[in-house]
Design brief:
alpha/beta; five-stranded parallel sheet; 7% strand; binds fe (ii) ion
């Protein structure tokens, strides 16, 4: 490293590149080309070594030989995409004379780009730089999503009675959605939407939101603004756009007596109907300022009544009963989500 003026810390600030190739000469060439650009380099001579390094310290970019001995580059790629910690890392496959079919297979498995051997040094350097820039943007988006999720938690935390409410609603609604066989995308809407369903409460005053007595008509009207407020706050965030049907419609009722749009029956998005069941159930089974927590059976009894009144989707409520038989009230997931740091 004597001839390299860039310290290890500086280098990792320019992005870490992991080169997985059994050919020592190719690895050496790539390292010689990229190190002067300020990138930190890691090398692996086999699929196993590569995966080990990937897991120990996920890099910002992987240069992967397609034809590794033992496990192929395709298998390594599949493992990278399957692990949540590494699935967003760009992977460039270095190919010799790869067939069209093998390239197609790699594209289906989520490869980011190819570089054909023999490659031009300028092309390699330029591609690596461009992909590392892109990775910076992806990282920033991921961070932003974490910030938003943390923010969503603070809404529940404003009131010790609702602590963990959104996370529990997301758990219940996700299980209900799975049970009725919702398609993957709709299920994602349910889970994310449930987590943010009350986001709009951020715009409601504490004096109204936390009032320990009966609300006046005006105060109730203010509470009822939260689905619209939620929509207005979230609609410009691309990562949360899929949550919108739930955020906006989770207070609709089957007979059209809900809000904000008074939709009825199946014109209420299924993701919202599923979340509503979970929302009402969680509200009834946790203590509120104005009453103690009801038992699961009491809550289901009340909700059955409300199905008869025309409020909730009866078929979904029946399915939800099924979900509860597989999810005891003292299930570790529920307890963990309900463990309020502010509870005395
Ligand atoms: Fe709500
Ligand atoms: Fe809620």
């Amino acid at each position: 490293m004597k001839d390299n003026p860039i310290s290890a810390q500086d280098a990792s600030a320019h992005g870490t590149v992991l080169v997985i190739d059994d050919d020592e000469q190719i690895r050496g060439l790539i390292v010689r080309l990229l190190r002067p650009m300020g990138h930190a380099l890691e090398e692996a001579a086999s699929a196993e070594e590569g995966l080990e390094k990937l897991r120990a310290r996920p890099p910002d970019l992987v240069l992967l030989d397609m034809q590794l001995p033992g496990r192929s580059g395709h298998e390594v790629l599949a493992e990278i995409r399957a692990d949540p910690r590494t699935r967003l890392i760009p992977v460039v496959m270095i190919t010799g004379a790869a067939t069209h079919e093998r390239k197609l297979k790699a594209i289906e498995a989520g490869v980011t780009d190819f570089i054909d051997k023999p490659f031009s040094p300028e092309e390699l350097v330029a591609r690596v730089r461009a992909l590392l820039e892109l990775k910076l943007v992806t990282d920033a988006l991921e961070d932003a999503e974490q910030v938003i999720i943390a923010l969503a938690r603070t809404i529940d935390a404003r009131d010790r009675y609702t602590y963990g409410h959104s996370a529990r609603v997301s758990l219940y609604a996700g299980l209900l959605g799975e049970r009725i066989g919702l398609e993957r995308r709709v299920l994602a809407t349910v889970r994310q939407g449930a987590l943010f369903h009350d986001f709009g409460k951020i715009a409601i005053r504490d004096a109204v939101l936390l009032k320990p007595a009966k609300l006046t008509d005006e105060e109730y009207a203010e509470i009822k603004r939260h689905p619209r407020e939620g929509r207005d706050l979230l609609q410009n965030m691309k990562t949360l756009a899929q949550a919108m049907p739930v955020v906006y419609h989770h207070h609709e009722r089957m007979d059209g007596s809900g809000y904000p749009d008074g939709l009825s029956g199946h014109s209420i998005p299924i993701a919202a109907r599923v979340t509503t069941i979970a929302d009402v159930f969680d509200a009834l089974t946790t203590a509120r300022v104005y009453r103690v927590a009801l038992s699961r059976e009491e809550a289901l009894g009340i909700m059955m009544e409300e199905v008869r009144k025309g409020w909730w989707d009866g078929r979904l409520l029946e399915e939800f009963r099924g979900v509860l038989t597989t999810l005891p009230a003292d299930d570790a997931r529920i307890l963990r989500l309900s463990d309020s740091p502010r509870r005395i």
